[in-house]
Each structure stands twice: as C-alpha cells, then as structure tokens.
C-alpha cells in the first residue's frame, strides 16, 4: 500500500482538498486498494474540525466526498508511515522539518508537480477566499501525483 500525506497550515482548506481530490482520482482509476491518502496540518487551531466550508462547497459542487475528514496535526510518526509527504507551501515544509526526524523526511512540494505554473506555493484560500483557484491546482496536480506514484511505486 502506497501512502500519501498532504500537509498545509490548519488542515481545513488546502490539504483536505488535496486528500479528497486524490482519493476521488484513485477511485476513478480503480486503485483504491493500492493507495491510501490522509492530510494533516502544522498548526493546531482546527484540530478535530471538518474541512472549511469553502473547501466543502467546491467538493460538493463536483461530487467529491470529504466524509470522515477532520483536521489533525502532522507528527514524527508520519515520516515512517507515509511514502509521499506533500507540502502545500515552503513555510509548512520548514515546520515539518522542525519536528523530530523531520530533517530527514522526504518532502514533495505540491507546486513542483506543476512546473509550468508561475505560482510556486499553493495559495491559502483561508486568506485569499479563492477556493476555485486551489481546486484547479489540486485537480491538475493530483493527476500528476497519481501518475508519479503509479510510475514509481505500482
């Protein structure tokens, strides 16, 4: 089983959207038994909460499930458990690196999956309000991530 963890700041906007989109694409490709996806945050403000209403709205419009998703903190245990730790921005990467064992964790920055984009970090819609922009990035980037996983691990 290949395991993917998306990481953002509060784990209510970007990383749960990535989690939900990738799960949806995994199901569409018939890979549900081969890839597991989760998400976490580097900040503790929203622990136990469901995804942000903006994230839920975008996912609802597209028929993508976010059932049973609640915010949690990234932990040192995640470095052992997950094959891919995908950070939404460099600040989150720095915070992950500060955790015990984080200096050796293999991180992937989401926007590295989309080198043609000018953006080098996924904008945080908690502050920008632009959930459509983030969905478009997640949709394209998760396709590429799934291609990467299938080429490297399956």
TrEMBL record:
Query: Where would one find coiled-coil regions in this protein?
Result: none
Domain Phosphotyrosine protein phosphatase I residues, every copy: 2-148
Instruction: Name the PANTHER family for this protein.
Output: LOW MOLECULAR WEIGHT PHOSPHOTYROSINE PROTEIN PHOSPHATASE (PTHR11717:SF7), LOW MOLECULAR WEIGHT PROTEIN TYROSINE PHOSPHATASE (PTHR11717)
Which Gene3D superfamilies does this entry report, sorted A to Z?
Answer: 3.40.50.2300
Q: Which UniProt keywords apply?
A: Hydrolase, Protein phosphatase
What is this protein's record name?
Answer: protein-tyrosine-phosphatase
Against InterPro entries, the record matches this protein to: LMW_PTPase, Ptyr_pPase, Ptyr_pPase_sf, Tyr_phospatase_low_mol_wt
For this chain, one GO molecular function annotation is: protein tyrosine phosphatase activity
| Catalytic residue list | 8, 14, 124
**What EC number is given for this enzyme?**
3.1.3.48
Q: What's its catalytic activity?
A: O-phospho-L-tyrosyl-[protein] + H2O = L-tyrosyl-[protein] + phosphate
- What's this protein's family per the entry? Belongs to the low molecular weight phosphotyrosine protein phosphatase family.
Question: Where on the tree of life does the source sit, at the highest rank?
Answer: Bacteria
